[in-house]
Write a structure and sequence with these properties.
Elements lengths: L6 H17 L3 E2 L1 H10 L4 H8 L2 H17 L5 H9 L4 H12 L19 E2 L1 H16 L7 H9 L4 H8 L4 H8 L9
Parallel strand pairs: 1-2
Length: 187
């Protein structure tokens, strides 16, 4: 499948691996792909994000992804659902970090020497890549571009879609911008 990726899509995948390595993550996650997309310039996905006001909220997205990692990958919706059951995720994170240090619930390893070889892709990250392929095929595109990865992230449940939606970027707004359905503004 990787041979069908454009240069920009390949750069997103390699950028996601680099984000995972820098963070000491055991696997490449969907969030790493979003971070790699946010790093891109001059690509279809970066154009779409800029058209939706991306320059204004880029750092806010990064902070929201960091906060979700601190919660052990729980989305805000999941944390709210647990709060409805009387479970305070913020309190749990605080207690764990008090004992084990900041970021202990993120799954990242502080001792990075344990790792040898390549980072594997989590089930969610693989699902994003598979969805990107399906989106490209459905649109009759010959290659998988970084815009397909962005659409796949926005169109599946999870932290990246939630963070993007909080900034007015949804599958629908991205489709309008990428397919020429008019200007879409982030809300």
């Amino acid at each position: 499948m990787f041979e069908r990726f454009t240069k920009d899509a390949r750069a997103v995948v390699t950028g996601a691996v680099e984000h995972a390595e820098r963070g000491g993550a055991q696997a490449v996650e969907a969030e790493h792909m979003l971070l790699a997309l946010l790093d891109r310039e001059g690509s279809r996905a970066s154009f779409a994000l800029a058209a939706l006001g991306g320059g204004q909220w880029l750092e806010s997205v990064r902070r929201a992804l960091d906060e979700a990692r601190r919660r052990g990958g729980l989305s805000q919706a999941e944390a709210d659902a647990l709060a409805g059951l009387g479970i305070d995720v913020g309190e749990i994170v605080a207690r764990v970090e008090e004992v084990h240090g900041v970021g202990a619930m993120s799954g990242d390893r502080k001792d990075k020497r344990w790792w040898s070889g390549h980072r594997s892709f989590s089930r969610e990250a693989k699902d994003v890549l598979e969805r990107a392929l399906r989106i490209a095929v459905a649109r009759r595109d010959r290659h998988i571009g970084d815009e397909h990865i962005l659409l796949a992230l926005a169109g599946r449940p999870g932290v990246p879609a939630e963070v993007l939606a909080d900034h007015g970027v949804t599958y629908e707004t991205l489709t309008r911008v990428l397919c020429g359905g008019g200007e879409a503004k982030a809300g």
